[in-house]
Amino acid sequence: MLFVVTGPSGCGKSSIIHHVMRDLRNIRFSISHTTRPRRPSEQDGRDYHFIGRTEFERMVAKKQFVEWALVHGHCYGTSKAEIEEKGAIGDLILDIDVQGARQIKSGPLRAVFVFILPPKHEELRRRLRERGEDKPEIIARRLKNARREIRHYADFDYVVVNNKLDQAVLELESVILGSRCRTDVRKAEILAILKSFK
Fold first, then answer.
1. What is residue 177's three-state secondary structure?
2. Do the Cβ atoms of 78 and 100 come closer than 8 Å?
3. In this predicted model, what pLDDT tens digit does every residue of 74-128 receive, in sequence order?
4. DSSP state string for 68-107
5. pTM over 0.85
6. Contact between residue 179 and residue 185 where contact means Cβ atoms under 8 Å apart
C-alpha cells in the first residue's frame, strides 16, 4: 500500500516518518529526486537523490516521474522506478509536497493520503528558524507557501497535528496499521481463511 504524507515545510514530516520507519515492519521510504542543494545534515541516496536541473528536466520529458513540482524555487519529484521497485516489496511511504500529493490523488495510483499540520503558525516559524539550514528569505517564502498549503488539508484522508512528536508518530502509525486491516486490502488472506472452513 502507498502512504502519501504531506504538509508545509517545517511541519515535521521527516521526523515523524523517521520514527515510523524505525517502529514499523514491512514499510519502505520512497526517496525523491530534487534539484535543491544538499543540506549539511543530508546524504545523497538516503534523504534525496540530488540531481541537476538539466537531468531533472530530462526525466520529466521522458515521463519518469509519477509526480513532480516546483517548490520554493527547486524541483522535486517521485520516480516511477522508485514506486515500482519498493512498492512491489511492501508498503511504501512518500514524504512529498502538497502539489505532488494532489497530482498522485488525481492519478491512477491507489494511496492513503495524510496531511501533517503544525499546531500554529508561530510554532512553524520557530521550527524553521531553529532548523538553522535556511536563509531568512527562504524561511519567509516557506511560511508564505504554508499559508496556502494548509488550506488543502480537507483533500486528504487523515490529518495529524504535530504538536508533540511522540503523539504524531503514534497517530501516523495508527493510520498505517488501520489501513493494513481494511477488508479490501486483506481480501486474498480473508478468502484463504474462508476456503479453509469449507
1. helix
2. yes
3. 999 999 999 999 988 889 999 999 999 999 999 999 999 999 999 999 999 999 9
4. EEEETTEEEEEEHHHHHHHHTTSEEEEE--HHHHHHHHTS
5. yes
6. yes
Find out whether 17 and 5 touch, Cβ atoms under 8 Å. Answer: yes
Widest pairwise Cα distance in the chain? 67
Contact 53, 63 (CB under 8 A): no
Domains of the chain: 2-196 (3.40.50.300)
Count of residues in the chain: 198
CA 170 to CA 11: how far, in whole Å? 16
CA-nearest of 159, 166, 151 to 117 is: 159
- Report the alpha-carbon distance of residue 82 to residue 71 in Å, rounded: 20
